[in-house]
Write a structure and sequence with these properties.
Elements lengths: L1 E7 L2 E7 L7 H8 L9 E7 L9 E7 L9 H13 L6 E6 L2 E11 L2 E7 L4 E9 L2 E7 L3 E6 L8 H11 L2 E8 L2 E8 L4 E3 L3 H13 L6 E5 L6 E5 L4 E14 L1
The protein binds the ligand N[C@@H](CCC[C@H](N)C(=O)O)C(=O)O.
Pathway: Amino-acid biosynthesis; L-lysine biosynthesis via DAP pathway; DL-2,6-diaminopimelate from LL-2,6-diaminopimelate: step 1/1
Function: Catalyzes the stereoinversion of LL-2,6-diaminopimelate (L,L-DAP) to meso-diaminopimelate (meso-DAP), a precursor of L-lysine and an essential component of the bacterial peptidoglycan.
GO molecular function, one term: diaminopimelate epimerase activity
Amino acid sequence: MIVSKYSASGNDFVIFHTFVKKNRSELAKKLCHRQEGVGADGLIVLIPKSSLDNDYDFEWQFYNSDGSEAEMCGNGSRACAHYAFANELAPGKMSFLTVAGVINAEVEASNAKGGMVLSELTPPQILETNIEHNGKRWFKLNTGVPHLVHICDDIEFFDIAEARELRKKHNANINIVFVDGKNLRVRTYERGVEDETFACGTGMAASFYIAYKEGLVSNNIKVYPKSGETLYLGVNERSITFKGEVKKIFVTEI
Ligand SMILES: N[C@@H](CCC[C@H](N)C(=O)O)C(=O)O
């Protein structure tokens, strides 16, 4: 079995393609294991299109490192788009089916080490605007998967114990966002990894959307996750666009 390891803004993934669609929860746990596997935040299984009558180029299954299946993954969508393009499974402008819906992506630049990829997420849905917890205000929204967002004034301090409590209570990923001039800094505790990751695409999108709706930033900004990489986020009439570098780390045979 040949797998690729990618990093998209610091969120890392194992990716392979197969025509066989089945549950790969146990495989995800093994491959994502940091000590005994390849090591990743998630597993992406790309299932190429088998007939011409679909209005997308391929389908994917996304698993978190604990084996749970997630509806969507923003950074994973960019890594997977690069993988699909590099392996001639899709054209540079593509669409693919996730549990959350059809995602449009575009590989704007590509070489053997990765490239620049834009992904358009499913339309954001604000679910709650005033969740109070430990004297802090949290917003709940869905940008493909559920997120809680708190606009903070100290991004250096992320209370992981508090994030764990909120994650359990609301079955959501937990983000703190800091307005840094015209741009944003975001940190995310991810469901299914059960820890803070270096970046979360749908989490950055959720944080951006709330900051935009609250009038704190414009409709086109830069967002910096914990990894420090730069992501370009924008909002259009349909949804949130999300662009940044993806890195192909290695390809290996298992
Ligand atoms: N890292 C992803 C989100 C992956 C799914 C998430 N952990 C969940 O279970 O909701 C991203 O970049 O969006």
